[in-house]
Design goal:
By secondary structure, the chain is α/β, with parallel strands linked by helices. 30% of the residues lie in helices and 16% in strands. It has 25 helices and 28 strands. The protein has a seven-stranded mixed β-sheet with strand order 5-4-16-15-14-6-7, sandwiched between helices. Helix 9 runs antiparallel to helix 12. Bound molecules: iron/sulfur cluster. Its cofactor is Mo-bis(molybdopterin guanine dinucleotide); [4Fe-4S] cluster.
Length: 751
């Protein structure tokens, strides 16, 4: 509950930044958040916080609100006119009429919702039901598409369900840790502290890091495989080749618990470590060492005395045009060696955002369905329709993130509702995204921060609450569900995301032809609000009611949380799923009995060949650009950008280049360079970094148009790093290849 004014108070909540999901204790006095400290009882962090988490209170200072927060609903009636402040009733009535009109004229797929892994599970649930249940479109996708969708597809393809098998506690039991495509030290700092602690306690533990850059994480490794961008599948296949050749695999596990090994063995027969060394730019001996350590849990063991290997991975595998293949090829290694389902062993994807996992659980994506049901399965669609009390859920996959904006640019998606995310900075090919935002008939932006670049395109701006003001739940990387609690009142007229969506949905429900089945609002819905004498599909009066409806939808599913009420979360603290009715706790580790959620109970090897990056470097665009996070900033800096001390680590954006590349061209550190791809260009100061190989470049993702305009950049050069990236995506996960683009560099020669 929100604390009364003038009372000093402490509230247990969860950090809203990364997927580690650290528990925080929020201190507030007189309705103002005055401090944050780590929650010593939270199993994700045991009291620790990183630089971002420990400065949360500074980003929530009330005096910042007039500059950075959206405070009132605003509408504009013409693109050329400024938005005017309006009441919530006027804003939502207007939007319901506009959506109803567009749907009546062009059909349900002419509207789309682009939401966010920053949202709470309850927010996600209502948006998903609004699109798929009320309107009858699967056009609901999220910025988690840019983050974890390849991990989802990789798990489903091999293990049968989107269920990360491991926990942070496995770090303490691992003999070998294999980190691929993750600068854990910066992107998941509190997990990295645990890795450092484990290594200090057990110096024999081996750490292998696979990354094209020599990051802080790679510096700490026993073996750094500094491979060429996008060549991970070749590396993993070559490791399996050597494991087979040297009898390091676990034939008994393969025979009893998996299918598809013969096809995979045939595929990797040709990928020798020598061949992969050429593709990946690595030493053959290093590939062999990595394979032996992975298979046996470090040096000095034999197959009979195998020790546990844990792999952790993130955007380097996911943000790729072959992200699913990369995830699956890594999971293949675990299955081949029986390195799964026991303490310290298994594949463990790290989620980028605080609640990318919760969004997956409610099925809040264009190709997913609630509670890990399958959109292509008619029985699953009928089950969800029955639970929601609607006639059906459409079968056709909706438009995923990039597709939704491409469709808007073509005029097919006419109304875009964007909530809690900033596509005008974060999606690839920014020129295309901005054309889409201009072409759409109606752009609704539901947002806490007016500093988001997308706000400039909003026909309707709906002010939302944010961290410190919201109630609900999030799920972190290890399937642990934590409560987010309000400490203070929201500024201005800001409302909770789920409440805005539900209020809009109720109004739209009155205008659309009835899609509800004769039994009304479905068996799960709480009784309460009515719509013209009949039950509405959105009767919620608090976030807990939404949670309870979501819980019920998971009954009998692999992520069953029917036993996890808010009162249990209150009593026992954060819990891992599954947590079915009657359980006394969640599950630390999945697949301990080697039974998988597939038709035959066996895991499946994936035999997908190596494919190079989508856009090869050539003479015109000779540099391989990659993008990523910095230690002390978060996404587009809506929050962290308001905390001056967080700029101490990296005060401004730059392009990192190998010193030899700078010297060869006669450029110096700090010189302004124009970076051009086939889609746009960008002007940034150069910085020498020997963490990159020659021919490679790195730009952080955080800075966007506003900063770059201030540096004298013009036109497209203001669009931030995603003015350069390409909208090509993985055919299974639909995740775009944000980790690689071919670029050329020249001196900027600005006036
Ligand atoms: Fe927050 Fe992630 Fe830092 Fe933990 S590690 S305090 S969740 S940003």
């Amino acid at each position: 509950a929100i604390v009364p004014e003038r009372a000093a108070h402490e509230t247990r909540s969860t950090c809203p930044y990364c997927g580690v999901g650290c528990g925080v204790i929020v201190e507030s006095v007189d309705g103002r958040i005055t401090g944050v400290r780590g929650d010593p009882d939270h199993p994700a962090n045991f009291g620790r916080l990183c630089a971002k988490g420990s400065t949360l209170h500074l980003s929530a200072a009330p005096e910042l609100a007039p500059q950075i927060r959206a405070l009132h609903p605003e509408l504009r009636t013409a693109r050329s006119a400024p938005r005017q402040a309006v009441s919530w009733n006027d804003a939502l009535d207007h939007l319901a009429r506009r959506f109803a009109g567009i749907i009546a004229e062009h059909g349900p797929d002419s509207v789309g919702f682009y939401i966010s892994g920053q949202m709470l599970t309850e927010d996600y649930y209502v948006f998903n039901k609004l699109a798929k249940g009320l309107i009858g479109t699967n056009n609901v996708d999220t910025n988690s598409r840019l983050c974890m969708s390849s991990a989802v597809a990789g798990y489903k393809q091999t293990l049968g369900a989107d269920a990360p098998p491991c926990s942070y506690a496995d770090i303490d039991d691992a003999s070998c840790l294999f980190i691929a495509g993750s600068n854990t030290a910066w992107a998941h700092p509190i997990v990295f502290r645990r890795i450092e602690q484990a290594k200090a306690a057990r110096p024999a533990m081996r750490l292998i890091v696979v990354d094209p850059r020599r990051t802080e994480t790679a510096e700490f490794a026993d073996l750094h495989l500094q491979l060429l961008p996008g060549t991970d599948v070749a590396l993993f296949h070559a490791m399996l080749h050597l494991m087979i050749w040297e009898d390091l695999i676990d034939p008994a596990y393969i025979a009893a618990h998996t299918t598809g090994f013969n096809a995979l063995r045939e595929l990797v027969r040709d990928m020798t470590p020598a061949k992969a060394a050429g593709i990946c730019g690595l030493r053959e001996a290093d590939i062999a060492t990595a394979a032996r350590w992975f298979a046996l849990g470090g040096p000095g063991a034999a197959a009979a005395t195998r020790r546990p290997t844990l792999s952790m991975y993130c955007q380097g595998l996911n943000q790729s045009s072959c992200g699913t293949a990369k995830n699956a090829a890594l999971i293949n290694l675990h299955l081949a060696c029986g390195q799964i389902g026991k303490p310290g062993a298994g594949p463990f994807s790290l989620t980028g955002q605080p609640n990318a996992m919760g969004g997956r659980e409610v099925g809040g994506m264009a190709n997913l369905l609630s509670a890990h049901r399958d959109l292509s399965n008619p029985d699953h669609r009928a089950e969800v329709a029955r639970l929601w009390g609607v006639d059906d859920v459409p079968a056709a996959r909706g438009k995923t993130a990039v597709e939704m904006f491409e469709a808007a640019a073509r005029g097919e998606v006419k109304a875009l509702w964007i909530a809690c995310t900033d596509p005008a900075q974060s999606l690839p090919d920014q020129a295309l995204v901005r054309r889409a935002l201009e072409a759409a008939e109606l752009v609704v932006v539901q947002e806490a921060y007016v500093t988001a670049a997308t706000v400039a395109y909003a026909d309707a701006l709906l002010p939302a609450t944010t961290w410190g003001e919201k109630e609900g739940t999030v799920t972190n990387s290890e399937r642990r569900i934590s409560r987010v609690r309000a400490s203070v009142r929201a500024p201005g007229l800001a409302r909770h995301d789920w409440a805005i969506a539900a209020d809009f949905a109720t109004r739209l429900e009155a205008l659309l032809p009835r899609r509800a089945a004769p039994h009304g609002a479905g068996p799960m819905a709480p009784s309460g609000r009515q719509l013209g004498g009949r039950p509405t599909l959105f009767p919620y009066t608090c976030a807990e009611q939404v949670w309870n409806e979501h819980r019920e939808s998971t009954r009998g599913r692999d992520l069953d949380i029917t036993g996890l009420s808010w009162s249990i979360l209150e009593r026992d603290g954060p819990q891992q799923w599954p947590y079915p009715e009657g359980a006394r706790g969640g599950k630390t580790r999945l697949y301990e009995n080697a039974t998988y959620p597939t038709a035959d109970g066996r895991a499946r090897f994936a035999a997908t060949p190596y494919a190079p990056v989508a856009e090869a470097c050539d003479a015109r665009h000779p540099f391989a650009l990659t993008t990523g996070r910095l230690r002390d900033q978060w996404h587009g800096m809506s929050r962290t950008g308001s905390v001056p001390r967080l700029f101490g680590h990296a005060p401004e954006p730059c392009i990192d280049l190998n010193p030899a590349d700078l010297a060869r061209r006669g450029w110096s550190d700090g010189e302004l360079l124009r970076v051009s791809s086939r889609r746009g260009d960008l002007v940034l100061p150069a910085r020498a970094s020997d963490g990159l190989r020659s021919g490679q470049a790195f730009i952080a993702m955080h800075w966007g148009a506003e900063y770059l305009a201030g540096r004298g950049a013009e036109g497209q050069a203001r669009l931030g790093v995603n003015g350069l990236t390409l909208p090509v995506f993985d055919p299974q996960s639909f995740q775009p290849e944000l980790k690689h683009a071919a670029v050329r560099l020249e001196a900027a020669n600005l006036p």
